[in-house]
Amino acid sequence: MKKVKVIITGRVQGVGFRALCRHKAKKLGVRGWVKNVDNDKVEAVFEADEEKVNQMIEWCWQGPTLASVSDINIIEGKPEGFKDFKVYK
User: 5, 27, 63, 76: which could join 67 in a potential S-S bond, CB 3.0 to 4.6 Å?
Assistant: First the structure.
């Protein structure tokens, strides 16, 4: 089990990033959460096996069609045992 927190920078708010991130995570069986944060960034936590977490990070570089990702900061952490994937405001 692997857990990462990612901070995604670029044009990532107002483009459906959180909703599509949740959809992708649910499809892969990844647990955690996603939310908008100050400075027009999106923050997310992904928890699953390493391959699925890596697929989520790869997806974040693309994001939705209208997104334009300039950087992703990845911080590894200790798995917490999330039960689902949630979207926060």
Answer: 63
